[in-house]
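note to self: the first set is below, dont mix up w the second
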Amino acid sequence: MSNQEYRPSSKEMKGEQLPYPAKQSDMKLQPDSDLSSYLPAGKLKDKTALITGADSGIGRAVAIAFAMEGAEVAILYNENDSDAAETKSLVEAKGGKCLVIKADVRQKQACTNAVEQTVSEYGKLNILVNNAAYQAVQMNLEDISEEQLRRTFETNIFGYFFMLQAALKYLKFGDAVINTGSIVGMTGIESIVDYSATKGAIHSFTKSMALQLGPKNIRVNAVIPGPVWTPNIPGTMPKDEVEKFGHEVALSRPGQPEELAPAYVLLASNDSSFMTGSLVEVTGGRLSSAK
């Protein structure tokens, strides 16, 4: 689908609900994540990328875009085997290589194993994309259980630490780390307090690691999505929130995963050689100062 063509508004989502962890293949209104309108330019030729949370949604679109740009790709996912298989198929349909790794980023050894498996397969690692995430809606702070709090933080921020710790021995001059933050890490949001707190932590982690790795010329940046139509939305949000999802942005609609992918390509490529510690907002016009 061309970026100039029609995209569904939040009103057309009709409150779709799916059990968690939601599969992209089960969504009635499918996310646009096949990069059908993307024009590659060989920006990642001879690079190897490892992308977490890449079985669906933004991670899937990034994997496809990277492959189209010439990178060898490894995708890490936790639960949805069929979605991961579809991502692999889509990457290979674009002429790319795709290593599929099933692992839980909450476990440090699993993160280490994923990095080692990627290097064993491809001989190197140049780009790490930390994208795996967990969220659950609770309107009252007292309803956030210790189990939920630990799962959210261990997935969304511990996993980012563990993956980068494992990757550092292989990253070298000119390589890149890209973290997925969120606009709610800047604005806050009442319904997913623990999730937004982890996203704020990711933003600070990004800036701190950019300072630490700058002398090695390893760049660390983050993409800051606004509302994006992914399986997490019908899988975690109540019906009324799904029906109005994305209504608050200037473009009056949620983004599609393939609209996020070019920002990751920018940050992974030499086009961003003077960018580090940057928080690149791709929000449809939801500003960080907005409520």
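second set (the one i keep forgetting abt)
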Amino acid sequence: MAYNWQPSADIATIKRRAQYLADVRRFFAERDVLEVETPILSQAAPTAPYMDSFTSDFIPFGSSSRQTYYLHTSPEFAMKRLLAANIGSIYQIARVFRNGEQGRLHAPEFTMLEWYRPELSLNQLMDEVNQLVQQVFGLNKISRLSYRGVFEFYLKINVFTCTDEQIKQCALTRIDGLPSDLELDRDGWLELLLSHVIEPRLAAMNLPVFIYDFPASQAQLAKIKKDEASNDVADRFELYMGGVEIANGYNELLNANELLQRFSDNNEQRQQQAMPKMPIDYHLLAAMESGMPVCSGVALGFDRIIMLALNKQEIRTVQCFAFNHA
């Protein structure tokens, strides 16, 4: 059998990637943001139903017992424990792993740039992301649109006042090929509309945009606040460039009890979907109970932003070796 041993990315791209890494480190050094490294393996894992983690067994020498560890999907939990220890502003360039994700824009193993800024509000963090995107990657300035505003502009619906059935009918009308008996919750229908209708239109307009103030049900690990219309919203943003999600930022939730409840709710959803429950990260909860500083944080897909900067069409073309070529 002949094996194709060649890299997935061309040598020029690999060299350019190395320069981007150096430029990112310079960007943060100029702002006194400390680079950290945290473990890839953890005894806990994200509970979110849309996330599936890789597992690995630890077997001590001379023992037949096995302890399951999880490859991290993000360095978030460990970095927040450092924040609770008063380390200050930090960033990490991490290899992360998500089981089942593979395609033009997805890979089971990829690189994430994640950073946390106790000194910055969420709006100030968006400013910093804007600076990074322009200074390091030479991409366009980013506009800002609220989640409610973008749905009203493109779909003529108010996501905070319309019914579940109205959202469903909007999706069935505007997205070809959806079966009429498809069963999704409210957020599932909204996600379909965002990914299949709104994102392509943003891409066609070549409009890099922060979408902020998501429905409170999509808070994930962000705080809940009131918007200007007194709706409960998640104090978070997502960055879309070329119609592709690039980054996800939060005004970080600091309440350990509320976070535990969200983890528990997620595990209930997983069981309803015939997915295994995930072990909860009680180290993180203990760190939050000890007092984590008010901060904003963001995770940015490093491979995806390189794709945009170099006008590449597949994630494999900016990685030295693609997953199925490893």
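remember for set 2: The two ends are 16 Å apart (CA to CA).
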